[in-house]
Amino acid sequence: xxxxxxxxxxxxxxxxxxxxxxxxxxxxxxxxxxxxxxxxxxxxxxxxxxxxxxxxxxxxxxxxxxxxxxxxxxxxxxxxxxxxxxxxxxxxxxxxxxxxxxxxxxxxxxxxxxxxxxxxxxxxxxxxxxxxxxxxxxxxxxxxxxxxxxxxxxxxxxxxxxxxxxxxxxxxxxxxxxxxxxxxxxxxxxxxxxxxxxxxxxxxxxxxxxxxxxxxxxxxxxxxxxxxxxxxxxxxxxxxxxxxxxxxxxxxxxxxxxxxxxxxxxxxxxxxxxxxxxxxxxxxxxxxxxxxxxxxxxxxxxxxxxxxxxxxxxx
Length: 315
Description:
The protein is α+β, with helices and mostly antiparallel strands. The chain has helices at 71-74, 113-121, 129-138, 142-150, 158-166, 171-179, 187-195, 200-209, 216-224, 229-237, 246-253, 258-266, 274-282, 287-298, 303-311, and strands at residues 6-10, 26-33, 39-46, 53-62, 66-67, 77-86, 90-99, 102-111.
């Protein structure tokens, strides 16, 4: 899956939303070898002082996407190369050079008028020049539009599609979370999940732990609060697997983890509820404190009594 390293970095104060954005005519490209065979790491940059925004994207893409660029060209030593990066929304006409498998140069951008017509055929409004440029940069194409329809999403606007692209919501992401049973209905929910780091691997970790068919906001909340597959597995091993994952969110927020649970059990309190564990944690009850209570002749008081002693300043 493409990395969501699609950043709109503001070179100066952003132009007002109502202002017309100027579409740049070109920018820079860099190509390096990627880890996987048949792939290259492609970086695309643009940005000058006359633009309110700049773009810096980096993705591993199939070498076949670089039309007119051969393996011999990439293995050359300083010879000028010409190739195209052809995408649904537009084309980047590239020129530059390679040395030792690494290349760099400049590109010019041309919008694809046929893309606008195909969007219209699907009932989607014509994008602004900026939206079409943005979709070209992020690789948003008709295949994503068709996949959204197949999965029952609301029909997106061109603005929705451009926003999805800049936030890393691509065809692969939509397919991957759809394959795990998540069809969220609208583009904004996809963007929100992507922004909060809810990826297919995170969803799979929850599925494996037994938490399936959660809502988009539930997934975001779990991710934001650090309740991932590892935390769930550790708490399960400690004897806590609540049916409502919100219990784990609250426990995580209160600092109750598997290590704390084990320490309290070792101190003789091995049947506390998560709520009791959160109370104990909030009041500073530790294994060491419980042992001091015993050493002072209190025996084994109830948790409420331990908390009262802690609150009264027993050290």
